[in-house]
Every structure is written in C-alpha cells, then in structure tokens.
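Now for today's protein:

——
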Amino acid sequence: MLPTFQSAYQYALENSDRVMTALQQHLLLVAVPLAIGLGLGLPLGLWSARSRLVSTVMLNSFNALRVIPSLAVLFLAVPVLGLSFWSAVLALTLLVMPPILISTDVAFRTINPAIREAATGMGMPPGNLLKTVEIPLALPVIIAGIKTATVEVIASATLAAFIGAGGLGAFS
C-alpha cells in the first residue's frame, strides 16, 4: 500500500532530527561538487571557447562522461577514495562538469564577433572586454548550464547513500 501524505508527514515529524541531518548532508553533497564544478568548469569553458583544439578534446571527453550512468560513476569512485563523502564528491563533480563546461563554451563562442570588434576598436583592453562585454553577454547561457548542473547533482546526490555518503537517499 502506498503511503499517504499524512503518513509521510507523520514520519518526518517523528524523525525530524534524522531528516534534518540527512538534509544537511544532502545539501553538502550538492554544494561541494557544484562549487568545484564551477571553479573548474567556468575557466575551462572559457579556454575551450578560445581554442578549437581544446574545445574538441575537452567537449568530447566530458560528453563521453555523460553517457555513464550516475550510479556507475559513484561506484567507479569507490576504489579511488573508498566508501566516503569524498568519493561521492568526486563522482558528483564529474557529473556537474559537462553542463557547466558546455554552456560556458557555447556562451562565449556565440557572442557576435562584431561586438568584440567594436569594443576592441574603441580601445578596450582584453581584460575589460571580458569583464564588461563578454561576461554580461554570456551570463544567461552560463546560468542555464549551472541550473542544469544543479538539478542533476540534486537528483544524483540521493544515490550517494549507496556508497555510505549519507543524504536524503539514506531513508528506507
């Protein structure tokens, strides 16, 4: 028999300490890989957008990672770091990298060259061009990739319970 909303609510009230602990673990399992993914994915995506060779190698490598199911990535991380929070972080970081990297690459690659040329023609140095022209134009696409990565890591973090990392997937 399927549990009703009332019974689920009752369970949450009776086990509020366990639910809050699991929620905190889950949020940590989401925040850490997302922060690492942003720290790596944004600069790599910008580099990828500037170089065709780097783009080909990097995007193909990360797209190949996308075909591996989340649970398989979690279990592949276990031999490296054991049954721990950090093996889940490694696997979830690999999961968030492709959408961030790809969206950043696409965002900078699709900026109209005439806009760059106009800014350069007015004497804008490359650093200012990036800060005041390119990043504001690329931001909507980058944020879309970050949203996708966030949804993927929230959903996949529940699987981390299978390798002992806790979170909301630990409830039975």
